[in-house]
Amino acid sequence: MARPKQDTTVTKRPYQKTAFTRTEYRQLARCVSDPMYFMRKFMKIQHPLKGAIPFKPYPFQEHIIKSFADNRFTIALTARQMGKSLALDTPILTPDGFVQLGDLNVGDTIYGQNGKPAKINFITDTMYDHKCYTVKFAHGETFVADEGHLWNIRLPTRKGEIVTVDTGKMKELYAKYKSISIEISKPIQFSDNETIIEPYVFGCWLGDGSSSDGRITCSKDDYYHYADKFNKKGFSVSEFRPDKRRTNTGNFNVVGLRSKLRINGLSKKIPNSMIFTSVENRLELLRGLMDTDGTVEKNGVCRFYQSNKEFIEQVRILLSSLGIKSTLRVKKTYRKDCFILTFCTTQKVCSIPRKLERMSEVKNHPKNTRFYISEILETNSVPVRCLQVDNKDHLFLAGKTLVPTHNTTCAAGFLLWKAMFTPDTTILVAANKFVQALEIMDRIRYAYENMPDFLRAGVTEYNKGTLTFDNGSKIVSRATSTDAGRGLSITLLYCLGGKTTVQVRDKITGEIKEVSLEELYDLCD
Q1: Which of 282-286, 333-337, 390-394, 428-432 has the highest mean pLDDT?
Q2: What is the pLDDT of residue 1?
Q3: Which residue of 121, 124, 276, 402 is surrounded by the most CB atoms within 10 Å?
Q4: What is the SS3 assignment for 373?
Q5: 37 vs 33: CA distance, rounded Å
Q6: Closest CA to 137 of 156, 153, 149, 157
Q7: Helix and strand tally (H, E) in the chain?
Q8: Which CATH superfamily does the domain covering 22-36+410-524 fall into?
């Protein structure tokens, strides 16, 4: 079978002669001798908003890369995504609800800033004794993150540039600007699960319905709006029944609602099936809640009141899942606490005309779509972990209000440099799951495709699992197994997760032993 032709639109043809300018020749010579210069000057990584941007290594990354380049025999044992970690009790949204970060596993589904599901393809072991900070947001969310955890923040400059910084640097920037923020996520794209009851009707009952039957309290002025809306959704309603104790207030009965509530075991709380559903279903549920138990101020600011803390927290999750920032405060009264959710949005979260008219006053102000940091304080060290997701921008949502946060890597740059500028080198990228190894290969190819052509080595093989250059070097990705390195004369081994073992020969006795990388590290030490 004929070999498929190499795609030369993204790669350089093998054995192609290149005419260098004097400047290009100097650049090439420096890149060959200095991997950090190559990575800082010519390596590109993918930014979630800006696309390809220059790679900016951290000091510890430079130290490790320099050690690799200067020493033939080097073993470095580090957690991948080293340092970019959050506390184990950080809530992370999954399709089944919130799960603490410490309880997540590789293969679990969480969500990215784009609102779409993302698979976890790597999680570090629990790490200890990291320098940690408490990061507080103005809307009430709080995280504990280690010093190296990465955040995509917007600076309050004229350009409003978005930069990726670690927690330590973010603390410095906050001290300087006093106003830095993180973009809110898009509405979460849950599966379009069938709801057990019509969302708008259920929202109205939750807001102002009787807990014992299908009656809903409302203003006389709003009755005909509800009657028309309920009829369109397949529910008949009774005549309006005035409340003799109050002016202009009464109730109406929704025919068949009581039996539907009883059959489905519904009470005055929002079941998961009504949150983990389509965006439109969630909006209809919110409209029912806001039409009955919510208010809209003259300036368009929305407020939702409740005395049940568990219920108000469910409504807040509903808002967050729709990409709406909210602030929760408690109003103390002589009888019981009242919880108040406040938010601004251009989404139509009401259907009653007088409330919609007031909502039209809300302009699309950037502050409504950003989480603002209010304080960053050093705190006691806690156990932390880092996870990696398989989306392109490497952002995932954390906390009950779904704040986007970051994960990243730098291994791809050194592996690419080693293969392109060291002839006859074989590099094996091994991982517990093949998809993890392929993720590193994706970054290697991305960096290769975005560098100047005069630097690139010619390619003879270019696919998901293998990258072979015309200088005899290759990068191969495989799942970790007893045969992962069989048939390869490996120059450099890069392992992701798991307990990897290698066979070594004792110099004195000649005995061949199988040892873990940790044991090998101790032997070399």
Answers
A1: 282-286
A2: 38
A3: 402
A4: strand
A5: 9
A6: 153
A7: 14, 31
A8: P-loop containing nucleotide triphosphate hydrolases (3.40.50.300)
Q: What string of H, E and C letters represents the secondary structure of 85-131?
A: CEECCCEEEECCEEEEHHHCCCCCEEECCCCCEEEEEEECCCECCCC
CA distance 23 to 5: 32
Chain-centroid distance of CA 52 in Å reads 19
Question: Residue range 126-136: average pLDDT?
Answer: 90
Domain boundaries along the sequence of the chain = 22-36+410-524
For residues 286 and 307, what is the distance between their CA atoms, to the nearest angstrom?
A: 18
Which of 110, 145, 194, 154 has its CA nearest to residue 394? Answer: 110
3-state helix, strand, coil in the chain (%, to 5): 30, 30, 45
- The residue length of the chain stands at 525
Report yes or no: 33 and 421 within 8 Å, Cβ to Cβ: no
Supply the DSSP string of 380-402, one letter for each residue: ----EE-EEESSSS-EEEETTTT
Query: Model pTM greater than 0.85?
Result: no
Residue pLDDT, tens place only, 323-382: 999 999 998 877 788 899 999 999 999 999 999 999 988 877 888 889 999 999 999 999
Region of 115 on the Ramachandran plot (φ > 0 left; ψ -120 to 50 alpha; else beta): left
CB 500 within 8 A of CB 517: yes
Q: Alpha-carbon distance 44 to 66, whole Å?
A: 19
Q: Pull the structure tokens for residue 198.
A: 């019509």
Residue with tokens 């959704």: 233
Residue 490 clears pLDDT 60, i.e. is over it:
yes
**Mean pLDDT, to the nearest integer, of 27-47?**
85
Average pLDDT over residues 408-413: 67
Query: What whole-number distance in Å separates Cα of residue 351 and Cα of residue 290?
Result: 9
Q: Where are the beta strands (DSSP E) in 387-511?
A: 387-389, 395-398, 403-406, 426-431, 459-462, 466-469, 474-479, 492-496, 501-505
Question: What confidence tier does 246 reach under pLDDT thresholds 50, 70, 90?
Answer: confident
What's residue 4's pLDDT? 44
- Please report, for residues 96, 100, 399, 432, 496, the alpha-carbon distance to residue 107 in angstroms, rounded to integers and kept in the order given: 14, 15, 20, 12, 15
Where is average pLDDT lowest: 279-288, 290-299, 435-444?
A: 435-444
